[in-house]
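Thread amino acids onto this structure.
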């Protein structure tokens, strides 16, 4: 029987806690072994009091509001089943889609299945921001996911053996795992309008998400060798500096007054900046080596090991050899 951990981050969702729990239990009862993990991200309403009365439930309460990503990470670390499903606590994700994600993952031999809210029931402003973010993500991250912002996702637990989430990284979990070599797919899921409570999305989360997107892009391209990026900037800057320096020499040969000229200063500026980029790149490169040296994480992930080596038996002794051995005795 399939075993599944359902993780739901909650923040001031007192009106949605009970019906959400009921829907999850209804969708999974008799279909698989499951646990429900509600992570209370420092709610200030009656969410905590209501959640504590629900069964079956593993309830985790954070000391303050750390954000959805931290709440999700706490739930993932507490999960005990091989499959992990995540969904929002606002009832916009449909728990009935969880088993569909499981079937799709197994049928296509995937490690991650991301929900795709093809028909969204959100405000026009929220849709506009989401589509803009998806466009930037497709350019920078290239994870081939239409709707990375959908919280309804399914993972194999092994995906998080060396992953710790922070910032607004929950949006980019499929991209992070794809960088590490895991197989990622997506499936269209049901999306419902919010009937109770207030949305927690605002412009601050949008900015944080954009900055985290840049972090994912850098990690994808240059995490192992940051010198390739910073050193590249350094070489370009040095080239500009020497170019301005050559220009300065030519002007001096022509007898021009350089006391009020910008060329010498531009040469010094770009040469200094170039050496600075190179030094930062070297330091970042050394820090990367220290990072991978101290952590369990490696810059690669092994999917499978197949050993076809066969232990050959020692050849049996020939009849003549046995006789000789006996004669010597």
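Threaded sequence (329 positions):
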């Amino acid at each position: 029987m399939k075993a599944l951990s359902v993780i739901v981050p909650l923040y001031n969702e007192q009106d949605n806690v009970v019906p959400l729990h009921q829907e999850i239990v209804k969708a999974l009862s008799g279909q698989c072994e499951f646990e429900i993990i509600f992570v209370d991200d420092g709610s200030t309403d009656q969410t905590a009091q209501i959640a504590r009365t629900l069964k079956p439930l593993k309830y985790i309460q954070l000391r303050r509001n750390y954000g959805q990503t931290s709440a999700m990470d706490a739930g993932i670390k507490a999960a005990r089943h091989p499959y992990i499903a995540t969904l929002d606590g606002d009832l916009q994700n449909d728990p009935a889609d969880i088993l569909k994600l499981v079937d799709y993952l197994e049928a296509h031999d995937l490690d991650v299945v991301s929900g795709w809210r093809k028909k969204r029931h959100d405000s026009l402003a929220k849709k506009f921001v989401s589509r803009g973010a998806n466009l930037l993500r497709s350019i920078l991250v290239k994870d081939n996911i239409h709707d990375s912002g959908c919280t309804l996702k399914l993972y194999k637990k092994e995906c998080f053996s060396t992953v710790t989430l922070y910032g607004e990284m929950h949006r980019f979990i499929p991209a992070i795992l794809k960088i590490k070599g895991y197989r990622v797919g997506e499936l269209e899921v049901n999306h419902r309008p919010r009937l109770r409570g207030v949305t927690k999305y605002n412009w601050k989360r949008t900015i944080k998400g954009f900055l985290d997107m840049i972090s994912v892009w850098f990690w994808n391209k240059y995490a192992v060798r940051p010198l390739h990026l910073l050193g590249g900037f350094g070489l370009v800057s040095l080239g500009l500096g020497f170019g301005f320096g050559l220009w300065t020499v030519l002007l001096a040969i022509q007898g021009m007054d350089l006391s009020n000229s910008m060329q010498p200063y531009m040469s010094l500026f770009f040469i200094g900046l170039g050496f600075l980029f190179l030094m930062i790149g070297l330091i970042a490169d050394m820090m990367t080596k220290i990072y991978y040296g101290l952590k369990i994480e490696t810059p690669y992930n092994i999917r499978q090991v197949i050993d076809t080596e066969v232990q050959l038996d020692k050849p049996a002794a020939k009849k003549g050899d046995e006789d000789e051995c006996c004669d010597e005795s």
